[in-house]
Predict the structure.
Amino acid sequence: MTNILTILLASSFAGFLGAITGLGGGSIMVPFLVATGIPVKYAIANSMITIIATSSGSASAYVRERLTNIKAAMYLEIFTITGAIIGAYIALLAPSKYLYFFFAAFLSSSFYGIRREIGKEIQENVAQDGISQWLELEGSYFDEAIDREVRYKMTNALWGGLGMVIAGLAAGMLGIGAGAFKVAIHELILKMPSKVSSSTSNFIIGMTALAGSSVFIASGFINLTLAAPMAIGTTIGSLMGTRVLNKLSNKTVRLLFTIVLAYLIVQMIYKGVVSIA
């Protein structure tokens, strides 16, 4: 078993990056735990705790700064919780090697979409569809990086909701909150600004992880010796991350997101190949 200090340091780093990128920390901790010899299903189950901790640590700060769009979060969470519960049951039945490749596949799709958006700071003149207007999916926040108030509107609410069902499935199956996939849906389909996307993702993933973790807890996969230091570390890291996000440009947030994704894709493909050999 990996020593507690190492887990604390790794989870603090995961919480910090997770709070900035919207990944939640689980997508960083799962590969780390697997690399230290912990079986993938136990890594998935215990990483749910880090996701809840990251969300709890960062959500209140982002809501206070008006970065989180609560209306969008509540609408999208209806779809993701349903997918998360189903996905957790699938994870208990599916062979581990398939989880590695599924993880790599959806991260690759996120990487491709976000990479094309790196050069853009804020998407202007977004035309809302009828459902998005009815739900009032819009908002504003003060961006410290460009020193002005940013107003934005979202669109494609129906397609965004359906996409979040798939994100929920991934969350339950992979124990990562599916922050990577959610951020891609927020930016590529709903047209959220990057900072709003990351902060709203952090708000959502805690509820998604809570729904998925209930299945793992009932099945006895949670190890408190492992989960407790992970929760402490990710909470500390996420609180540090909230102090940094609004000072970064949207371009920098996207760049950090794609760098972390590239690492995770390579790591999971490698583990999947090794599990087959």
Summary: The chain has one domain: 4-276. The chain has a mean pLDDT of 80.
